What does this fold into?
Amino acid sequence: MRRTMLFGLAGFTALALLGWGVNVGLQYLGRISSPDVPVAPTPPTAPTAHITATLFYGAPDGLSLAPVRVDVPLAEGAVAQGRQIVRALLQPPPAPYLPVIPRGTTLKALYLTTGGDAFVDLSAEVSTNHPGGTQAELLTVYAVVNAMTTNLQGVQRVQLLIDGREADTVAGHVDVRRPLERDPSLVRQDPLPAVQ
Amino acid sequence: MRAPAALAVLLALLLTSLALAQNPAPISVISAAGRRALPATLVNGQEYVSLDDVALFLPLSLREDRQGGLIITVRGKTIVAPRDRPLVSVDGRVVSLPGPLTRAGTRWLAPIDFLPRALGPVAEQRIEYRRASRLLVLGAVRVPRVTTRVEPSGAGTRVTVEIAPPAGVMTVTDTDRVVVRIDADALDVAPVVGTAPAVAQVRADPPASLTVLLATPSADAKTTASTSDTMARVVIEIAPASQSPDTSSAAPPQPAAPAPLVIAPAAGGVRTVVIDPGHGGEDVGVKGPGGTLEKQVTLDLAKRLKGVLEARMGVHVVLTRDDDRAMTLDERTATANNAKGHVFVSLHMNGSPAPARTGPAVFFMRLDREGEDTRREAGAQALALPVLGGGTRIIETIRWDLAQARHIDDSQRLATLLAGALQGRAAAPAPVHPAPLRVLAGLDMPAALFEMGYLTNAEQEKGAATDDVRASLVQAVYDAVSRFATGPADAPAPAARAARERR
It folds into this structure.
């Protein structure tokens, strides 16, 4: 009788340990398959912090850049803020402005130097999807250069990289081998409406 | 008293007439600095030149020794000329001369042979005297001998021009003349042998052209050129006047020649024009909504422009590409610089995100801070070195990839002239913009980039396909280049300046 009770206690203990082990294991597996960010993040109930940046889109005349005030998410630090500005610039512009950055172009990297130079690394689409022409290429290049130098304090010059490499030109005309300074001559002087 | 006075007058007249009779024509000195005259004097039947005159283009110093001889120092080496002896010691080596160096008043005279025989070895450069043509050739300048023979050939006339040693030759045939342009710094032209009624005149035009003027305008003249190891030969066959074809019906259509064809001298030293048809090969450039490719338009216009510029200005035109092939921008720059171009025009069709945008535009190079620094440093580091023929040569050091920095002013003038030439031809005025353009950066010559219209505009795309529009564009570039070549009224021609700097 006593022996039977001992076997029963041992079996119960073993089952309990087995159940506990399975539970712990399942919990562990569940933890490693979870993403760092919520799978379905809840939409923000309050407006995110942002800055109002001046971006440069193609003016309706097709000849110049139009400065447009746009809300851009606030980011921590100049590099992160620069990325937000370029990402905003790469989005299709609101009407009536014209796109000057070729479709499909993405920001691959962005670097700042202590000397006031910024390096903006864009994907190859900026070149392969470019429609060509000196004027269109000037608008493409200086939309980025002017946006960076206008909105980021301390950035005086911008060099475009394409797919991680230095390039001669974007579309066969404008020399982007060296950092470029802002070109206000391409910017329309008459004010255009702000865009929210 | 009267008799001695009359005798003195007679003697003076006699000496004057003898002196005049003894002064032969000046010798032409050809060097990298250009052509200049060197006065010559006959002494005992030999041609002598003054060493003071020689010192104007060949740095030398003179010092008389105690025995009445002369010591000449050139580049630290000495030539000792003993008195009244027809020989000199050149850096320790004896060289014979047709006569001794002699003193005439305050000037020392030397036989002309003294220059190639004695001065040449110590000056460490070529000094060649061509007695027949009375040319003194200094340094590495190309001065081929040109002989011209005019003779009957069947019922017509044949003009044979031989150039030795061989040099590049380009012929331009017009209604009343054939111009033979020779790739040389100057020509050593022998008198023409023979005459014919069909040839009114054969004349040499500086720097290196030979013009055969036809007695009968519209005569049929055909040229053939050949080159051997020893000479280049151009044969001009002039048909008899009665057999001349009716040019009004047989002349091929000129692609872009609304103005009369006039051979003008290559003004302002512009001898080579480089035309760059933008894009090519896989790089099609802008593609119009109707499918027109920028690379095709630019190549066609470049070829037309080459014909017009060569025919009307007599310049040599180099195309960076003459077929549909891809070229890097560095290759285009190198082609232009290697050709030693005096003007560069890059042809393009523009693109805009606004399909309605139309009109031409002209660009020239804009320097950034680095470029401006380079430009200033080039001026600050310029060296003034003495050159043969007198004067100095300014040597500027500049980064090869920013060679355009020292031509910015001339490039702006070229761009402005091009925009001006488009007035009345384009629907809208052509703006002139400075921009950091890659193809212009390394060009060592005045340069502009011409966006001839927006291929992204459907109407301009259609227009660019028409002969009228293309002829008008070609005419505008021709007008601008020819005006640029003549230079501004208040300044030396820029191309001449460029040529001087390049020498």
Notes: The two ends of chain B are 63 Å apart (CA to CA). Chain B has a mean pLDDT of 81. Residues 267-502 of chain B form a domain with the Aminopeptidase fold (CATH 3.40.630.40).
